Amino acid sequence: MQQTLREWSRRSAFLKISFYLIEDFIRGLKLSLGKLGTESGAAHAKFSEEESMIYIENIIHSYKTNGNIEKFSGTVAELGPGDNAGVAMLMRGEGCTQIDLVDRYYSDRNTEQQSKIYQHIADKYDLNHLKTTDSWDEQKIAGINWKIGQAAEDYFRQCADRNEPVYDFIVSCAVLEHLYDPLDCLQQMVGCLKSGGKILQIVDLRDHNMFTPIKQELFFLQIPSFIYPLTGKNSGRPNRILIHRYREVLESMKQAGLIDYSILVGSLADVGKIEPPQKFQDIDPEKQRQTIEFVEQHRHKFAQEFKHVDSQDLAVSGIFIDIVKK
Ligand SMILES: C[S@@+](CC[C@H](N)C(=O)[O-])C[C@H]1O[C@@H](n2cnc3c(N)ncnc32)[C@H](O)[C@@H]1O
Predict the structure, then answer these.
(1) How would you write the pLDDT of the chain (326 residues) with one tens digit per residue?
(2) How far is the CA of 188 from the centre of ligand 1 (A)?
(3) In angstroms, rounded to a whole number, what is the distance separating the alpha carbons of residues 93 and 91?
(4) Residue 41 C-alpha to ligand 1 middle, in angstroms?
């Protein structure tokens, strides 16, 4: 019986991977035909105006407290805003002159609900002057430019190639993990940043329910490396780039004298959220022990690329990246 169950769950993971591969292939075809619609990033569709407000304020609060900044100003790029320009509106309210919203897809949205959310934000933060049309049209909010259909990878490469740094801040929440090439993209972003400018990125390194909760949360690290990238390249599923890969790239830019940076841990496998995000060594030792034990229980099954990665790095399931350009 146990053998049959084990076989069934193994097969069900196999079926899921097959489904993701096919779906990703179809997604690639759709993208090539210019079909950009996605459910990803449609967070606000299910929120009341007040819930949206809290969601947006929490993101701004996280950027500011973890990134040690008092106020946003100047020109900003936000990657993957999803279905709402609320974060950008609050940044405009703080004095930013221009926010570019760069998204590879077009997240599903309810325009009527979005208008209510924008009105709610405008009333609370005195931002009605940003409305340029009779009712809120998010495509026409003053100083906010949507760049839909542009992968961040392409957008920042083209920007860096122009060799004229334009941004004071480049931010994102829950987006880098969806990029097909986040490491190169980070390097291009640095090329687009003015001296003294900041890149602030909240990154969720979990499997985004690809296999959880049916499987344990690190199961996705078991998928062989020649298959895994094919499950999400076109559909934006988690890229499985973990903290050590980000650190490697950031460290090399630091050594080249381009940046200073810090990476804080925002969540751990089997433990959950770490509030506020902090360096691994500063986290409660009991939580450190618990997460390392969890990794070590499973790591013998991980794909080859993770076999030699430190358990501490494999345990990190969410990070906050803070980069300052020199
Ligand atoms: C999980 S949603 C996050 C949305 C929003 N930032 C939030 O906090 O609710 C991920 C977003 O990243 C976008 N995205 C995925 N891959 C991208 C890429 N390569 N370039 C730019 N945006 C991308 C998706 O369309 C979506 O808007």
Answers:
(1) 556 555 555 568 888 999 899 999 999 999 888 887 777 767 777 888 999 999 999 999 999 999 999 999 999 999 999 989 999 999 999 999 999 999 999 887 888 889 999 999 999 999 999 999 999 999 999 999 999 999 999 999 999 999 999 999 999 999 999 999 999 999 999 999 999 999 999 999 999 999 999 999 999 999 999 999 999 999 999 999 999 999 999 999 999 999 999 999 999 999 999 999 999 999 999 999 999 999 999 999 999 999 999 999 999 999 999 999 99
(2) 18
(3) 5
(4) 6
Concatenated DSSP letters for 150-194?
--HHHHHHHHHHTT---EEEEEEES-GGG-SSHHHHHHHHHHHEE
C-alpha to C-alpha distance for 167 and 147, rounded to whole angstroms: 15
Q: Ligand 1: residues within 6 Å at CB?
A: 38, 40-41, 43, 79-82, 102-105, 107, 151-153, 173-175, 178-179, 236
Return the ligand 1 atom nearest residue 151 CA: 20
The pTM of the full predicted model, rounded to 2 decimals, is: 0.94
Closest residue by CA, ligand 1 atom 12: 80
Structural domains of the chain sorted by starting position, each given as residue range(s) with its CATH number in brackets: 2-246 (3.40.50)
Separation of CA 264 and ligand 1 centre (Å): 21
What CA–CA distance (Å, rounded) separates 251 from 247? 6
